[in-house]
Each structure stands twice: as C-alpha cells, then as structure tokens.
Amino acid sequence: MGDSHTMRVGRRTVEIHRPDKVLFPADGGGKEYTKGDLVAYHRAVAPFMLPHLRGRPLMLERHPDGLDGPMFMQKNTPEHYPDRIERVEVAKEGGTVVHPVCDDAATLVYLADQACLTLHRWLSRAGDVDRPDRLVIDLDPSVDDFAQVREAARDVRDLRDAPNLPSVPMTTGSRGVHVVVPLNGHDDFDAVRDFARELAGELVRAHPERLTVEPRKKDRGDRLYLDIQRNVYAQTAVAPYTVRARPGAPVATPLTWEQLDAPAVDARRWTLADAVDQARTDPWAGAMRRGRALAPARRLAALRG
Predict the structure, then answer these.
(1) Partner residues linked to 17 by β-bridges
(2) How do residues 195-211 score in pLDDT, each as one tens digit?
(3) Which DSSP category does 24 fall into?
(4) How far apart are CA 25 and CA 32, in angstroms?
(5) Is-contact 292 165, C-beta < 8 A?
(6) What phi and psi values does residue 200 have, to the nearest 5 degrees?
(7) Strands 86-92 and 22-24
C-alpha cells in the first residue's frame, strides 16, 4: 500500500496518505473503493459540490479504517488541520464550537484524505448562523420502499408550489429523499421550523394513512415519517453530492422532479462511480440562486386553509 503522494488542487498542494487504503470493501460482488477513489471523486465533483458548502459550518463523519472500522462525528476542527482551512466559531450550550468550513477544492480533497466520507452541513451560513437559507423536509420511510418516498415527495412539491415556494429533490443515498426549499435567509430557525411543522401537519391531515410526524419508530407503523428536525439551530443535513457511509458508496444526489418519477431511480441510484455525471447535467438548474421569503407563503397558506 503506497504511503503518500502530493497532488496539485487549484493553487494548493495537498498530501494524500495511503491512497490504496480500502474504505468501501466489495460487497456482494460490488465494486471496491479506496481512499484514492474518494479523493478523485472529491476533486472531480468540487465545482458542483462547493456551491452547497461554501460558508457553512460542517460536521464531518469520519471512518479512518473504512466501513468496517469505527466511525466518529467531528464538529470541532482539529489543531493539526492546515491554517488555510476556514473555520467558524458558533455558540453552543455552555460554550462554543469551532467548525470547519469547506470553501475550496483543496479543502474538499484534504477532507477526503482524512477519511471524511460524509459531510453534514448547516442550513445557515457563517455570516448569520441564526438565519437558515434552506428548509429541508427529510422523507424517511418505515420500510425500504421508494415508491412510497416518491409519492410523498410529490405531495410536498405540490403543496409548496401552490404558494410559490418552489422546492427541489435530492436522494439521500440511504432510503429516502430530501425536499429542499431555498429561502432568502430573513427568518430565524424558530420561524422556519414552525413553518416546516405546519407544512408537515397539513400533509399528514391530508394523507393520514401514508404519512406521519410521529418521531418514535414504534408508533409509525408502515407510514412515512416527515422529519423536519433538520430545521433547528446547530442541526445538519447531508450535503448535496456527499458520499454516504454505506456499502457501494451511494451519493446524496440532486435530481429533477422528472428524474424522480423514473422507475429506475431510487435513493441509492447514484454512487461514487457516476454521481459526477449526474452533477454535470445541472439538475437543479439555478434553483438555489434565488431564495424565497416565507411570509408570502404563510399568507397564501392561510387563505387556502
């Protein structure tokens, strides 16, 4: 196994250690992926992934020995991380946390070298951590049934599009879908969470046999859980185009609403091997560039209800 080598990433040089180390063992005859494969993926996906990471505090899911070894979640930025990596200090109960921020391709490659398989991002930015510019509804099925997820995603889309608050879907790389709404960042987390709770409640009232907001798994039955808990200060959601720590290296992948309807698509459709090809199609086509205000949507929802 090779010890290390350096690579040029933009204007930076990044040292890669043990690139032949297996992070994703071959599973059931599937493909094996090494740290070198993860580094190459991060380097290739950087132009598409970085717009979803810049300026946001990150929580890092690290697997130093791959899927077969221990995992730990890292919030605080270690002292040995290069000074060039951006950091943001945010308040927590009883103190502060200094999160890393990924603003360039060299940092993205460095994190791959640190065996950061999955990047979990805040829904707000370092400049105003109390005001999110994303709202996320996590569609979590009780069983691995993507048809159920697809139907619930359409329910969310149709409900939000009516008051002119458009949304976009993303596979999670696990079992579900995130429906993401771009916001203008004028509302605080409490207001965004309350709005998400109202949205989820309206959907459950319309489809009580299929959907639930019950957080306890034992009380959900076969219903799909509408998880709004990402929309809280200091909570995170998996970043678009991040690799999930699961066999086969599935990727959380943005897609179009039309693609979501395709029978061949499920939550693990794209992997480390082909997610960059999907990214190049620009599936969200600029949807994140214009965040919307919640106030008009609230007024229209009140008139409708």
Answers:
(1) 4
(2) 999 999 999 999 999 99
(3) E
(4) 5
(5) yes
(6) -60, -40
(7) unpaired
